[in-house]
Design goal:
About 50% of the residues lie in helices and about 15% in strands. It has eight helices and six strands. It has helices at about 5-15, 20-30, 35-50, 85-100, 100-120, 125-140, 165, 170-185, and strands at about 55-60, 65-70, 145-150, 150-155, 190, 200-205. Strands 3-4-6-5 form a four-stranded antiparallel β-sheet, with helices on one face. It has a two-stranded antiparallel sheet with strand order 1-2. The model has no long low-confidence stretch (mean pLDDT about 90).
């Protein structure tokens, strides 16, 4: 990644949230002079890459114009070293040792339902609901998009947030299926899977026009 944008991600990780002025000051201490215009340019690119959230209005505690703050998305957090993959793999291994297969599936189904609940997607026309599901999945690291298909829609995810674990834990693919179904309010049919060597995980939603 380009150096300045990596610095911006590090600043947002350290601060939790930051304004353009905050980022300018921190960047000046790291790499020298930089303007607010340049910072906004880099923030726009990071937003397009789904690494930084859209700016949120924050009112000052003292008199002055309100400012906009930026934060990292869940996808951005994957750019930093962590032990999540090893921890997840170990937890799943222990679950398989101690529980029957159905028990593991019940736990992962509960995880999928909780994730869908956190997305807070309301009842809406199907395409609007699909767009909100894609936004949630992309912000969660799946890099999702959709397209119209004969008789319905295709939802694609081009990244697996836990690809290092999924190959040895196929139950995670079923968890994703349950997540997609819960987000959309209808059960899709999976037509491609990355763990099978496909470029995407793809889900076909048939007759979606009749879905509320």
């Amino acid at each position: 990644m380009q150096e300045t944008r990596q610095y911006i991600l590090e600043i947002l990780r350290e601060r939790g949230e930051a304004t353009v002025d905050d980022i300018v000051r921190d960047l000046q201490s790291k790499r020298g002079a930089i303007t607010a215009v340049t910072v906004r340019h880099h923030l726009n690119i990071l937003q397009k890459d789904a690494l930084v959230t859209s700016p949120q209005l924050k009112r000052r505690a003292r008199p002055g114009r309100p400012q906009h703050t930026y934060t990292l998305t869940e996808k951005a957090k994957l750019h930093f070293p962590n032990n999540y993959q090893r921890l997840a793999s170990s937890l799943l291994e222990e679950l398989r040792k101690r529980l029957p297969p159905d028990g593991v599936n019940v736990i992962l189904e509960g995880v999928a339902l909780k994730m869908a609940d956190q997305a807070s997607i309301p009842d809406a026309p199907f395409e609007e609901r699909l767009r909100m599901a894609v936004t949630y999945l992309t912000n969660s690291g799946y890099e999702a998009y959709w397209e119209a298909s004969d008789g319905g829609y295709l939802l694609h995810t081009s990244n697996c947030p836990y690809h290092q674990v999924a190959n040895d834990n196929p139950q995670l693919c079923e968890m994703d299926m349950r997540l997609v179904a819960s987000l959309l309010g209808t059960v899709p049919r999976r037509v491609e899977r990355r763990t099978d060597g496909d470029h995407h995980c793809s889900y076909l939603i048939v007759n979606a026009a009749g879905v509320p």
